[in-house]
Design brief:
With 463 residues, the chain is an alpha+beta fold. It folds into three domains: 2-191, no CATH class; 225-418, Alpha-Beta Plaits, CATH 3.30.70.1230; 420-463, no CATH class. It is built from 13 helices and ten strands. The strands form two sheets. Strands 1, 2, 3, 4, 5, 6, 7 and 8 form an eight-stranded mixed sheet that branches. It starts with a helix and ends with a helix.
Amino acid sequence: MSDASSNTAMLHADIEDFSFRQHHIRALVCFAAAGTSLSQITWGSPEWSLISITVVLVLYSVASYIYLKRYSANPKRSFDRFITTDAALIGLVLHFTHFSLLPSILFITMVQFNSLINGGLRKCAADDAALLGGMAIGFFIQQPQWVYTDRLEISSVSLVGIFAYFCAYGLYAHKRMKKLDAHIKKLSSEHTLYKLRSYKLARYLTPTVWKAINEGKEKTLTTERKRVTVFFSDIQGFSALSEELEAETLTELLNSYLTEMARIATKHKGTIDKFMGDAVMVIFGDAQSEGLKMDCLRCVSMAIEMKKKMKELQARWVSLGIKNPMLIRMGINTGFCTVGSFGTSHYMDYTVLGTHVNLASRLESAAEPGEILISHDTWSLVKDVVMCRDKGEIMVKGFSHAVRVYQVVDFRKDLGTDKSWLELNTEGFSMHIDLDKVRNYEKDKVLDILKRATEQLKDKSIT
C-alpha cells in the first residue's frame, strides 16, 4: 500500500504542477512591449522617456525571471503579482506609443488572455485596473499625441511579439495536455488498483474501523464506555476434528461455516469483532445501534438463526465424510464495556474489553452443544419476545459469585400451542413452568399451589 500511496502522491503533485504560470513565457510579454517601445524611437531626435521605459522593461523582465526561478518563497503568489505589474508597464508603453491602434488592440487582448488563463475574472479585473493605472501614470509624465499612426515597424514588432507569445503558450499548453492525459490514464489505473485493494482491506476490518480510516477520521476511534451486547460461539470438538481431517477438507468446512455465520451476523446488523479459529465474536450496540433492547433482541435473533442454520450445514458436511454432527455453543451477555482502540503505536486493534465480555465468553464455554446461554441482563430485555428456560445459577471461571443463566428456546410466536413450558410475568404475578423438568413426586405439590391460587384469585375477583 505504501508504494501505491507514494505513486498516487507523485501523480497528484504532477497534476498540480499543470499550470500556465511559466516565467519564460511571461517574459515574452515584457520583451514584446520593450520592442514596441523601441520601434517608436526616432534616433535622430530620441525621446528619453521611450528609451527609459525600454531599458526598464528589459531589466525588469530579466530581474523578475531570475527572482521567480531562484529566490521566490511563494512562486505562484509572486507570479500573480508580476502579471499585475506587467499590465501596469504595458499601460505605460501604450501611452508612450501614443495608443497606436494595432499595438493597443494586441496588448490589451494579451493582458485579458494572460489574466483569465492564470486567475479568472477576479484576476482579470485587477490586471485591467493596473493597465489603466499605468496609462494614468503616463498622463502625469507627458500628454500623449492623439495621432493615428500606420508606421509598419511599430505594428510589425508588436505583431511579431504577440504572435511569439501566443505560439509559445500554444506549444506549452499542448505539451502539458499530453502529459496530463498520460497522468490521468495512469491515475485511473492507480485508482482502480486502490479500489481493489480497499475492497480487500475492508474484508479484514470492522465497519466502524473501515469507515473511520476511509474517511480519514481515525481519531474518532476513541475509547469510551458503552452498554453493548456481546456474542461468542464455537464448534464443539473442533480442535479434535481438525487433527482428523485433511487440510483442504478442514479449510472448506471452516470457510463454509464462517461464511454462513458472517452472513447471518451481517443480516442482523451485528459487528463481527474477530474470528478465532472456529470461534466467532460479534458485538451489537456499537456501530449500528438501534437502542439497547433492540440491539439485544437482534443478537438473540441472530443466535437462533445460527442454531437453525447448523442443521442445514450438518447435512452438507456429511458429504465431506463428517459422520458425527457438529454443534455450536453460544453465549450472550449485555453490559457496560470499554469500546475503542487498543495496542501500540505500530499496531492497533479496535475491540471491546471488560467483565461483561469475559462473562459472555464464559457462558459460551458453559453451554451444552447446540445450546444458547444468556445472562440475566440479556434475558430481562428479550423475555417478552423470546422464550427462555431458567437454568438457575452456575459458577463461572473468573467470577466469585454465581451467575444466573437462561437457555434460549425460540421465539414465542413460533412455539405454537404444543409446548412444554409456560411463563407469564405481570405486576403482582410471576410464573414459569417447565413441564419437562417438574419431577413426578412434586407434581401434586405444584397442582395444589396452582389450585389454591386459582381459588383465592376467584374469591378476590368476586369480592
